[in-house]
Write a structure and sequence with these properties.
Cytosol_ACT, alpha+beta, 21% helix, 5-stranded antiparallel beta sheet, HOTDOG_ACOT, Thiol Ester Dehydrase, Chain A, 129 residues, HotDog_dom_sf, single chain
């Protein structure tokens, strides 16, 4: 795993399981959306809402008690939006083994105080890099 910081970390609990005993994919997607939203709001300096979620894959399995780390990167910047890739990595509860359990792409639109799309401030973006 590359030396990078996760946007969020969470532990999978029994309520996060699907009927087959694995972690529910919807829970993984929601954690990824939270991490991506945090990045969009921080870089956009304000309210950012998800408008699409695409390209999801679930290459690995996660068990109850495993720790999930969500890593996000801004893949593209539009006039009023960010496209953010998210990668979910599970670490086994009692060890160091890691598995990529999900990946996907989110698009966020920045909103003003009237909940209307607002422009991405290029000067603020370069200050965050």
């Amino acid at each position: 795993m590359a030396d990078r910081s996760p946007q969020i970390r969470a532990t999978a609990m029994p309520t996060d399981l699907n009927p087959y005993g694995g972690v529910f994919g919807g829970w993984l997607m929601s954690q990824m959306a939270l991490g991506a939203g945090s990045l969009a709001s921080r870089h956009g300096k304000g309210k950012a809402v998800v408008v699409s979620a695409t390209d999801f894959a679930f290459p690995g399995a996660m068990q109850v008690g495993d720790e999930l780390s969500v890593y996000c990167d801004i893949a593209a910047t539009g006039n009023t939006s960010f496209t953010i890739t998210a990668e979910a990595i599970a670490r086994e509860r009692n060890g160091e083994a890691e598995t990529r359990v999900a990946q996907g792409t989110f698009k966020f639109v920045l909103l003003d105080e009237d909940n209307r799309p607002r422009a991405v401030n290029a000067a603020a973006l370069s200050a965050n890099d």
